[in-house]
Amino acid sequence: MAIGKRTKAARAAFEGKNLITVEDAVKLIKDSATAKFDETLEIAMNLGVDPRHADQMVRGVVTLPNGTGKTVRVAVFARGAKADEAKAAGADIVGAEDLMESIQAGKIEFDRCIATPDMMPLVGRLGKILGPRNLMPNPKVGTVTMDVAGAVGNAKGGEVQFKVEKAGVIHAGIGKVSFEENKLAENIRAFVEAVSRARPAGAKGTYVKKVSVSSTMGPGVALDLASAAGN
C-alpha cells in the first residue's frame, strides 16, 4: 500500500525521537497533525499488571483540567425527582424500562451511562450489551450515584474513565490537537497522575512501563517518564 505524503512527512518528523519531554511531544504532534478535522490527542500507557487477576485490575476516572474537547452524550437511568434532576443537569436521554428496551433493541445513542442505585436491578439485565462497550454504570467511577446532577456535570465537563485492557494497556483520548500546548501538557500529566494513583495492590515491580502519545491519524512518540509524571 502506498504511503501518502502527509504520513511520510509525519514519520520523518518523528524519526529518532524517543523518550522526549511532554512539551516537546505536544509540539511535535501539533506540528505534524495535518488531517482535515480536529484530531484527538491520544495517550497509551503500558502497565506492569495482568488484569486477569482481580488484585491487578486498574480502573478509575479523572477530570482533565482542560476538558476533552469532545461532546459527551449522557444517558441516565432514573425515576421521578431524580429523572427530573438529570434532565435539568443536561442529560441527553433519561428513562427506566423504556430506556432499557431501546438499548436491548440496539439503540445506543450515548457515550456515558449513569444510574441511581435503585435502578441497578434493571440496568443489570443490560450487562452483556453495556459491559463490552465499557458503558456499564459502576459505583467505583461515580456512575452509580444519587447525585445524578453531579455525575452528568462531570461527564459533560471533561471527565475521562479509564480501564486497563487484557494486554496491560490503557488508552484514552485526552484533548484536541487544536488546544494550546500548555493545556494539552496539563491534561497529559493529570491523566498519568490519575493512573499512577490507581496502582492496584497486586502490582509488582515497575508499574508504569511506557507512556506514548499520538494524534488520531499520526504516529506515536514515547514520553520521558519523569516528564510525564511532572518531575
Give a structural overview.
- The structure is a single chain.
- The protein has helices spanning 5-14, 22-32, 80-88, 97-104, 120-123, 127-130, 148-156, 181-197, 225-228, and strands at 40-47, 59-63, 74-77, 93-95, 112-115, 159-163, 169-176, 208-215, 220-222.
- With 231 residues, it is of the alpha/beta class.
- It has two domains: 17-68 and 159-228, Ribosomal protein L1/L10, rRNA-binding domain (Ribulose 1,5 Bisphosphate Carboxylase/Oxygenase), CATH 3.30.190; 74-156, 3-Layer(aba) Sandwich (Rossmann fold), CATH 3.40.50.
- Strands 7-1-8-9 form a four-stranded antiparallel beta sheet, covered by helices on one side. The chain has a three-stranded parallel beta sheet with strand order 4-3-5, sandwiched between helices.
- A hairpin with a 4-residue loop joins β8 and β9.
- α2 (22-32) packs across α8 (181-197).
- The longest helix has 17 residues, at 181-197.
- It is globular.
